[in-house]
Structures are given as structure tokens and as C-alpha cells.
Amino acid sequence: MTHIGFQPPAVGEEEVAAVAETIRSGWLTTGPKAAELERRLGEYLEAEHVVALSSGTAALHLALVALGIGPGDEVITTPITWPATANVIVHAGATPVFADVRDGDLNIDPEQVAALVTGRTKAIMPVHLAGQPCELEPLWALGLPVVEDAAHATESRYRGRKLGGLSDATCFSLYATKNLAAGEGGLIATNRAELAAAVRELRLTRRGDGALYDLAVPGYKANLSDVLAAIALVQLDKLERHGELRRRQFARYDEAVAGLAGIRPLERDPRDTHARHLYVVRIDPEEGGATRDDYQRALAEEGISTSIHFLPVHTLTWYRERFPEQPPLPVAERAGRDVLSLPLSPAHPDEAIEAVVAALRRVHARFAG
Ligand SMILES: Cc1ncc(COP(=O)(O)O)c(C=O)c1O
Prior knowledge:
Blueprint lengths: L12 H13 L6 H13 L4 E5 L2 H11 L7 E4 L6 H8 L3 E4 L11 H7 L4 E5 L11 H4 L6 E3 L7 E2 L2 E2 L6 E5 L12 E5 L2 H11 L22 H33 L4 E3 L13 E5 L1 H4 L3 H10 L15 H6 L7 H9 E4 L7 H19 L1
Parallel strand pairs: 2-3, 2-4, 5-8
Antiparallel strand pairs: 1-9, 6-7, 8-9, 10-11, 11-12
């Protein structure tokens, strides 16, 4: 049986050569490659400032710290995300407040957000799940800082405008599975010069050029190594080609699941550009004849790795114990039970995607009859 990985990295000899060249240059820590990455991503993301960081988590965290968010403050976010989005609110000393999501695309529901705003709310942190931009306009209309978690949304456009310079800060991840993958890394894009300067200060531990140094703030040491920046620069050159492959894989899956009762993909808004980071389906146990967990197990037996994006953060142990009064979030909780992400990667040849489609059809025929 052949095994189809969920999101194998799409890297090759070009990345190997870039790493070797960087090591030979003598710059292992943040240096010219990180600076070049910041400049090129500023152009690509249509943002005035980009700051390279050690992870997407660090980007989200430093954005909140730079905005002055701390103890006593509340930040409204979505439960359908990787826990890091909520964790950084806790790290900043503030309180995460979870707003339910919309059923169609599982992005944060702006009406639920508006209902949760209090005098203590200091920021909104939406996520662009799977690469579909969330509704930003109603969030901006609340008049609070918006920090976008764009970890899935490197190529996304919201109503024609590139995500990056639209809100106060937009945070990206360079994690191994992401569309622009360096292994680890993160970025903050912003048009606010003072915010970018604050993050630059916070990402290091000290400031100074010579033997003497000074300390303006106790920094976090969250800078990006040039070795990783070199990989990201090669990945940036490949982004368009990789995007075409993602589009092809999405189209194949769309066609395949259209014929499978009880299995439907997350909605995509034709007014936006979707980054096609994840192909997420929802499995209706009635029509599909079995639960998501049954489908995931059966696909694993067929050699197909899948994943779950996401289990609602407020239902995870630490959040349940820390916030016992959390009211139910029914749309997110149902999604946590029925979402399943199919293998997707520019590293997958067409035959791998065909093998996934064939296995999904066999499993569906068995369960749905
Ligand atoms: C939605 C979301 N936010 C934040 C992160 C954190 O990024 P990183 O792993 O680079 O810290 C991830 C994933 O890794 C993510 O999927």
C-alpha cells in the first residue's frame, strides 16, 4: 500500500543550495537574507513594513505586546484555529474571548464579535481559515485594533486587496506545512511604522553596534535566522508555480466531492482570492453514513493521512479548566466534530491526489451505501 502524506514540504535542490550558500557566507543569524526577505515580502504583500520573526506564534504575540495589550485587557478571537492564536493572548497577560464562527466558511462571525465587545476589549484577532479571508470590513467598523492571523493566507486577497497592509498588523507563519515554508519562521506585515519599529525592538534582546549596548525594552529573542530566510526566499520564487498546483488539486477535489452525498467543502467567496492552504470538507454523519472519526480511520487504513482544522480551542483542557464559564459555541463545536482536511501539497503528484479521490470514494461507498 502506498502512503500519501498529509502536507509533505515542497522543497528541493534549490533550497539545499540556498542553505549551503548562506552557511558559507558566515551569516547564520539574522542578516542580509532576512533583510532581503523583509524587502521582497513587503512588495509581495503590498505592505510598507515586514518584520521577520522566529514563528507565526511569535508574530502574533509581539503584535499584541507592541499594541500595548496586557493584564486586564480582552482580545476577541475565533475558537476554530490552531491554539497559538489564543495562547498568545494569554502570554500577553490578557484574556481571550471566543466568538462563534459562521457555518459556511468557519471564519469568525462579525455579529458575534460585535456582541462580545466590552470596555475592556483592546483588539480583535481573526483567522483566515484554510486561506479564505474572513469578513474584515465589519471588524474594522468596530474601531478597535485588528491583528489578523494570516498563517494560512499568504496568497489571499480580500475583495481584490492583498492581505498584509489592510489591518493594524497581519501575521504570517513560515512553518513547514505552510504555503511559504522555511521550516519555522513568522512575519508581521503592517503599514504602521511605529508598530514595525516596536516589533523590531521586541524581537531582539539588545540594541547596539559596538562593544557597548543598551536596553530599551526586555526583548523576546524572536528573530529569524538567515539560514531559514534563505529557504523562504526560494519558496517565494516558487509561490506562483506552487499556487497553480494547489489550484489543480482543489479543482480535482471539488469535482470528486460534488458526487459524494454528505461530504461538502468549506465555502469560498468568489469576491476573494483563496490561498488554497487547506482543503477542508465537512462530513455529515447522517448523509455520509459515518462520523468524521470513522472516515479518518478508514482513510488511514487506506494509507491516506488526513488532519483536523480545527478542534475548537475553548474545548481543549487548559481553556476548559481556566474558563469554566465559557458559554457553548454551537457552530464551532459542531465543526470540531465534522471537519476533515485532505492531503494537499505541491509536492504531491497528480497520481497521489487520484489515489486520495479513489480511497475517499471507496470509503464513502462503504459507509453511505
Ligand atoms: C491558524 C494558525 N495560527 C498560528 C499558527 C502558528 O504558527 P507557527 O507554527 O509558525 O508558530 C498556525 C500554525 O502553525 C496556524 O495554523
